[in-house]
Amino acid sequence: MSARPLPRLAARAVPLLIGALSLQPAIGQTAPSAAPAGAPSTAPADTSATAPSGTQATQSQAPDNQSPDNQTVDNQIADNQAGGALVPPAADGVPLVPKGAEWNTFNGQLDAQKYSPLTQITPQNVGKLKLAWQYHTGDMSTGSGKVPASVWSATPVLANDTLYLGTPFYRIIALNPGTGKVKWTYDPHAELKALTQPDMKNRGVAYWQAQDPKPGESCQKIVYIGTMAAKLHAVDADTGKPCEGFADKGTLDVNRWNTVNGKWPLSLLQPPTVWHDELVFGWAGKDWADEEAPPGSIFAVNARTGKLDWQLNFIPTDIRKQTGTANVWASMSIDRQRGILYVPVSSPSPNFWGGNRTQKIPQGTSVTAIDMKTGKVIWSRQLVHHDIWDYDTNAAPTLMDIDVDGKTIPALAQTTKMGFIFVLNRLTGKPVWPIREVKVPTSTDAKGEQPSPTQPEPTLPKPLLNTHKHPGVWGLADAASFGQCSKMFKNATYDGMFTPPTTKGTGAIAYPGSVGGVEWGGGAYDPKSETFVVNSSRVVMTYKLIPKADFAKYKNNPDFYPQKGAPYGILIKTALNDLGMPCWKPPFGKLTAIDMKTGKELWQRPFGDVQKWGFYMPKSWGSPTIGSPAVTASGVVFIGATMDQKVRAIDMKSGKVLWSSKVMAPDVSVPAIYEYKGREYVAFAAGGNSILKKTVGDQLAVYALPKGAASGG
Amino acid sequence: MTESMTGPRTSARAGTGAAPGAATLIAVAALVALVITAWRYFTPLSGVTGTAGALLTMVGDVALLIGGIVLALLPGGGWRVLFLVLAWIGGLLTLLATVLLHGWSSAAALVVLLLALLIATFVKGPAKGTHP
């Protein structure tokens, strides 16, 4: 199949673009040696402290059916076009990092640092932490009945003197932050079916409040929750009653914008990101199911009314119908000073064969910076070219101001499934440390496939795992299975991380596999010490393409996904032997701390315990992890994330475990750290995730120092 | 009654009528380990609630408990030797399983059990039928 020519981009005169241009001075200035997304990056590392005027190329092109009430921005970045929208200036007096202790979003704060300035709990006294209170939501399912199994990854959000929770059954629960007493609950009576995901999933709620609340009026403070059926519910934060003025009596049906390849609903599992009076959100789709899927998009709606202010699409218009996804299913971050939104964009569909999309999709598997006011792309950097490994960019980039070689750089750290951390100037998208374009294998037996000959690889920080060599066959698992593991590996194809999926033998070894690397939690950052802490998994998977003619053989195989419409389905397996033991050598997970002044590793340790039948395996093996850390100014890292259902406190300087406690199920969320009536609390939502183990939970476990034991910071 | 009336001492009897207290201690230690592991099996958030590993370990504890009782009753002979060997195998495997369950208290009980087993195996108690 020959590549279709990429059409020349022209700036059509459209009301939105003209309106945006009139607000942006000096449009069209050339970006100094800025490489457009998707092209090899040979620019030297960027150590500039300020953003050069002009950024990576942007062109806006609205569809022909644009209406003023539904403005869509299509962003297609030309390969060699320079100029574009200016970076919005910093807002005076608005620091990147909030001055006070805030935990009012999924990532703690809009900068996604997951950082608390609280110092009551210290490395010296954290060993005294006790369960202060706990709450069971009642919303969990093992999947043995009619309701699919639950996966709960919600961050508790503290706002309005209340701790708000979203549950996997899409209820909102408002709790007293000090006691866990229920203030109110809201039940949207959502459909509890696996419409797009195999499990009932939720990552929590979002909170908004009016800057000038009108006394006596309801819905001046609102809590939002999305459902798998693409409904966004808005309720009064004080009463839990639906906000009648929001969309249709408190419910926005996001599926109204699902107009291309609308085979399944745009599931709202990740709460919206709130900035001023705007909510912005992406959606999650049905993994690995279809070649032609809804094309990736994000929506910005008015927080009070639900009216669409802008929509941004990530797939070029001319190929939108033949492919899909490249959506944003994870969380986002916002530079509060400048109103720049940063989104992690996933891979296009179908995920494991790209013969239908050999044209460039510059924003597929990218990190993209967007002007919140206009929805225009400021810059975009593709992290995987022609992604055929499902290496979605899957976490909000963490925004940080770092001191490198004597200069302060407004930066971001983008974690990835591949185990790379891309550190970029967040105003320009240029790398802080060089990114190499590395040659990767292109040989494939998949018809129509055209793998990219190179892939970007950051030089610093070093990858969290070896991307050129898998861990090797584990002798213990091989012996226990009478050679099953070595046979599996022998019959697989492997030539580094970017080995194309194949029809041959066991398939291609994927290391890291689709579960990462790093998952949707991303990392946490301490702005005082400029330390970035991130947990990562080491999991080997195999990807075997199955030709359409052989689909019938795999009909009942739970590891088979049809990628309907494509000539190949995919068999995705974790490399386990028949006893359930990993066939690759441990460790299976690590926790890493990185000095962001130098990009160098401070420490890295196996993290978590693997359990089988209740037996704990050696600590040196570590555990796969899902969820993320949170850090405090006193130098404590709090994290759940591990298979062993423990939550831990870690010394940020050394990586040593200072405290742990058992919870009901693996805590696969971002912990919340907050202060209430003079006491510092750490809250973990222990909900479980079937990727780690089948154990499910509905427990919110909240810990604090015993009264009187606090050191006072 | 004279020594001749009791019959000659047999080699099987000699050296195996040892410390019945040791066998009792084996049974008690096994019972303690069993109770602790059972508590962990049934208690939420113990780390091993409802797991096959804890259940298997409890089976081992029960076997050791029975073994201890039997050893306390067996005066000597080939059966005692057999049960001693089985107790060693069972004791070491159950201790390993308990350590893998991170059951430190029950592991301590099993260490006591193994010490008692050591005594039962090698320390000769007074032979039956002898009088000071």
Can you walk through the features of this model?
The complex is a heterodimer of chains A (about 725) and B (about 130). Helix content of chain A is about 5%, strand content about 30%. Chain A has a single domain (about 15-380, about 390-705), classed as Quinoprotein alcohol dehydrogenase-like superfamily (Methanol Dehydrogenase, Chain A, 8 Propeller), CATH 2.140.10.10. Chain A is mainly beta. The longest helix of chain A is centred in the first third of the chain and has 9 residues, at about 15-25. The model of chain B is unreliable at about 1-15 (pLDDT under 50). Helices cover about 70% and strands about 0% of the residues of chain B. Chain B has one domain (about 20-115). The chains are: A mainly beta (about 725), B mainly alpha (about 130). The interface of A and B includes residues 612 and 644 of A.
Features:
heterodimer, A: 713 residues, Methanol Dehydrogenase, Chain A, five-stranded mixed beta sheet, 3 helices, B: mainly alpha, 0% strand
CATH architecture title of chain A: 8 Propeller
Protein chains sharing the most extensive interface: A-B, 12 and 14 residues
Helical proportion of chain B, percent range? 55-70%
Bulk shape of chain B: elongated
Radius of gyration of chain A: 24 Å
Strand content of chain A: 25-35%
Number of DSSP strands of chain B? 0
What do the pLDDT scores of chain B average to?
A: 85
Q: Could you list the spans of chain A in which at least 5 consecutive residues all have pLDDT below 50?
A: 1-70, 76-83
- Main sheet overview of chain A: 6 strands, mixed
